[in-house]
Write a structure and sequence with these properties.
Helix content is 29%, strand content 26%. With 174 residues, the chain is an alpha/beta fold. It has a single domain, classed as 2,3-Dihydroxybiphenyl 1,2-Dioxygenase, domain 1, CATH 3.10.180.10.
Length: 174
């Protein structure tokens, strides 16, 4: 029964991921939607320098500003913007517990290819402070493929290659 529920959840998630970008800009009762996507996401981090290095050195993002008095650094991949905020006392900061804390469960990034996903997996194994929760694997029955890590400050990050992209890569190999 649990397996059936998991499969249904993954099917729903896959349909949502495909349909969401194409959904009409109105709610079910025809009220207009007043937002236009996520502007940026803020993550509280224990070690600002290590988290910035993770995004810039490991993922290839670039810094796009910051506020040294806060302190915070803004990073971007050219599409998404993330604000990394230094917690005031890293020694007393409470680790996130996705099953018991309200708030961000994880942040998911689209990866352009299976090769890039596997290269990231290899790279993550050598980055100090990165914890790999699971290596690249099918999401549900696939072919969407993903992996989950914790960046150096403990935030959960998921990296996903869409089923459409996986199928295109498999067709190209034929």
């Amino acid at each position: 029964m649990k397996n059936i529920k998991n499969n249904l959840l993954f099917i729903w998630l896959a349909v949502f991921m495909i349909a969401a970008p194409h959904a009409a800009a109105s709610t079910q009762d025809d009220r207009p939607v007043v937002t236009e996507g996520i502007n940026h996401l803020g993550l509280a981090v224990k070690n600002l320098d290590r988290s910035v290095a993770f995004f810039t050195d490991t993922l290839g993002w670039r810094t796009a500003g910051g506020d040294p008095d806060y302190p915070a650094v803004f990073v971007t991949d050219g599409n998404a913007f993330i604000t990394l905020w230094q917690v005031s006392d890293p020694k007393t900061a409470v680790e996130f517990d996705r099953k018991n804390n309200v708030g961000l469960h994880h942040l998911a990034f689209t990866v352009k290819s299976l090769k890039a996903l596997h290269e990231l997996h290899q790279k993550f194994q050598d980055v100090d402070g990165v914890r790999i929760e699971f290596a690249p694997e099918f999401m549900g029955q696939g072919p969407t493929t993903h992996m989950m890590i914790r960046e150096p400050s403990g935030n959960r990050l998921e990296f996903v290659v869409s089923g459409r992209q996986v199928r295109a890569e498999m067709e190209a190999k034929k």
